[in-house]
Amino acid sequence: MSTNNCCCCGQVDERDEKLQEIIKKHKETKGALIPVLHEAQELYGYLPIEVQKMVAEGLGVSLSEVYGVVTFYTQFSLNPKGKYKIQVCMGTACYVKGAGQILDKLKEKLGLDVDQCSEDGLFSLEACRCIGACGLAPVITVNEDVYGRIGPDDVEGIIKKYKE
Amino acid sequence: MEMVNITIDSRKLQVPANYTILEAAREANIAIPTLCFLKEINEIGACRMCVVEVKGARSLQAACVYPVSEGLEIYTQSPSVREARKVTLELILSNHDKKCLTCVRSRNCELQRLAEDLNIKDIRFEGESYDYSLDELSPSIVRDPNKCVLCRRCVSMCKNVQTVSVIDTNERGFKTIVSSAFNKSLNEVPCVMCGQCINVCPVGALREKDGTEMVWDALANPDLHVVVQTAPAVRVALGEEFGMPIGSRVTSNMVASLRRLGFDKVFDTDTAADLTIMEEGTELINRIKNGGKLPLITSCSPGWIKFCEHNYPEFLDNLSSCKSPHEMFGAVLKSYYAEKMGIDPSKVFVVSIMPCTAKKFEAQRPEMAATGHPDVDVVLTTRELAKMIKEAGIDFKDLPQRQFDDPMGEATGAAVIFGATGGVMEAALRTVAEVLSGESIENVEYNQVRGVEGIKEATIEVAGLTLKAAVAHGLGNARKLLDRIKAGEAEYHFIEIMACPGGCVNGGGQPIQPSDVRSWIDLRTERAKAIYEEDRDLPIRKSHENPKIKALYSEFLGEPGGHKAHKLLHTHYKQRENYPLDK
C-alpha cells in the first residue's frame, strides 16, 4: 500500500490513514468508487494522482477507471482548491444573462484561469454546470454563499469581502 | 433453441429467440452498418450507426443490442433510418481528422467505408475539431486521438479482455477522449504493448510505431549484412494483406518477397523456436528433477512478460529464463553465424518480422544484447512487411517458389505451431516426453492443448511422472489462471501463457480485419488451422530432431542449458512499478 510521506518531515500523512478507513467502510458495497471519491475529495480538497492511486489499489480497480470517473464529473477536481472556492454557473439561463462576462472579470481581477488556484491559496476559480438557481441568473457562489442577479461591476466588491 | 417469427423489410424470418436484430439481419443477408459494435467485445449501442425502425417503438433502435421477439417488425431502409444514419455519420466525420491519403488505415478503415457505403458526398456540419498531440513515446504503439471516433472498442479490449486497463474514456462531452490516466503516454503506464487495441480500432487512431524506414536504410547500406527472420504466425496471415482468404499459407511468397526486397539472408524464426524448446525443455526437466521452482511458465510472449512484471511479480521466478525465439536467433546470428561467415558482428543487421507489437519493446530491453550489440535491430509487424512489399511494387501473388536460407533455415513442425495457443506447450511435450522416457513416441499431436478455450489443461503420463500442464491465452485468462494458483486451487508443472487471445496468429501486429469479419469469423481458429496443416506437412515434427539445431549445439553451443547457451539464449526479468510517482 502506498502512502504519502510529508516532503518536509517524512511523517506519514494522517489523511492517508483516514482514506484507508473510508475505503474499508465502502469496499464491500457495489458502486463504492463514487462515494469514496467524494469523501476523499472532502479530506484532501482535491484528487491528485497519489490519492487516486490509493483509491484504485484499495478498491481493486484500475487507475484508468478511477481517472475516467474523476474527469467525467465536474464536482471532482484534479487541482487544489482555494480557501474560497468561486464557482460561476454556466448553465443556459446564466449564460444568456452574461455569465461569460462575469467569468472574464473574475479571471482578470484574480489573475487566474479556470480551474486554477491563487498562489496564496485564498481563491480558486471554476466554471460549473447549472446549479438550479436560474431565477437568480446570473449566479456565482463563493463556498456556501450565493450571489445572484449580478453584473461584471459587482465582481470586485465580492472578492474584496473575502480578502479581509 | 426457441425460435421467433419476425419481419425485416417485409421479409418473414424465423430466428433463434436470443438473437439481436443485427444477428437476425445478418443471417438473412440484410446489411446493417455498424461502427462501435464488435461481437462479444463491444456491444454497447453507442454510435447509433446501426439504427433501425421497429414498429411500435417510440424512436429508432440500435440493431446491435435490440433483442428480437415474436412478431417484431423491423425496417432497415426507411427514410427516417437513412436520414438518421447519414446525420450521425456526418457528425462523426465533422471533427474527424480526415487525412485519409496519408492514414495508415486508408482503404482498410471502417469509417471510410461507411462514408462510401452511405454515399456521403458532403459534410454539412462544420465546427470545432480536435487538436490533440500524438502519443508516440511508446516503442510499440502510437495513439492519435484526432482520428478517434470514441467507439470504445480498444477500451473494452484493454480492460475486459486483456485486464490491462491502461486506457479509458476520460473527460465528457466534446472533450471526451480515450487516453491513459493523467494523460500519461502509453510508455509511462503499465501498458504491455500487446497491440490488441490496434487490431480492434476501426480507424487510424491506434497504430504500431513504424520501423520500415530503418529497414530501408539498412538495406541501402552496403556496409551492412542485413538478415531477416520471420515468425511462424506471419506466414499464415500475410496473405490477407493482399486480399487472400483468411488462413492462406504463403510461406514461399513471403520468402520470395523478402529476397526481392534485398535482404542478404532470409531465415526462419522457427529454427530458433526449436532451439527454444531445447533450452526450455531442459529447464523444465532440470526443475522437475532437482526440485526447482514450479510451475515453469513460458517466456516467448513479451506482452505476457511485461504483464507479469507489472502485475504478478511473485511469479517472476517461475518464468522460464529463455529469451523468446527471435531474440535467441538474433544472439546466434551475431555470434555463431557471424563467426561462421567471417562477418564482423557489428555489421550484421537483424530484422525480425513478427505478428507482434510487444516484440518492438522487447528488442529494446537492455538485457537483449548478448554480444554487446542488440540481438535484434528492428522488429516489423506483419502489416509493416506488407507495406514494404507494396511500396517495392512486388506482385505478391505471382512469385517463384522460394525456400528459407541455410544454415538457419530448417525447422520442425514443433516450431511452426508456436504460432497458435498451446503450440509451445505441445512442442515442448513432444521433446520432453521423449527425453524423459528415452523412447521414440509415435503420436505427436496433443489435442488437449489445442483450440481456443481460454484455459486448457492436460495431464500427461511420462516415464512414471504425471505431468500437469495448463495453457492460457489472452491476459484476462492468464490472470484467472494465476489467481487460481495463488489461491492454492490448482497446481501444475508447466504453463504456457500467450498475451494475445488465440496466441501469435491473432497477435497485435497481424493483418486487421474489420468488425464485420472479426465478429463472425474466428480469426484465431482459421489461422491456427493453417499452422497445424504446415506442421503436418513437415518431415520432422520434433525440435530435438532438427539437424541444424544438433549441429548448432555440437559446433558451437555445447550442451542445452550449458554456459554458452546461458550467456546467449537466456535472460532475466524485473518487477515494474505501476504508475511510479515523481519524487
CATH architecture of the largest domain in chain B: 3-Layer(aba) Sandwich
CATH topology of the largest domain in chain A: Glutaredoxin
Q: Which geometry of chain B do the CA atoms define?
A: globular
| Overall pLDDT level of chain B | 96
Based on Cα principal axes, name the global outline of chain A.
elongated
User: What count of domains describes the coordinates of chain B?
Assistant: 3
Cα-based radius of gyration of chain A, to the nearest Å = 18 Å
Tell me about the biggest sheet of chain B? 5 strands, mixed
CATH homologous superfamily of the largest domain in chain A - what is it? Glutaredoxin
- Rounded to the nearest angstrom, the distance between the terminal CA atoms of chain B is 60 Å
Strand content of chain A: 5-15%
What value does the average pLDDT of chain A take? 91
Share of residues in strands of chain B: 5-15%
Q: How many distinct helices of chain A? A: 7
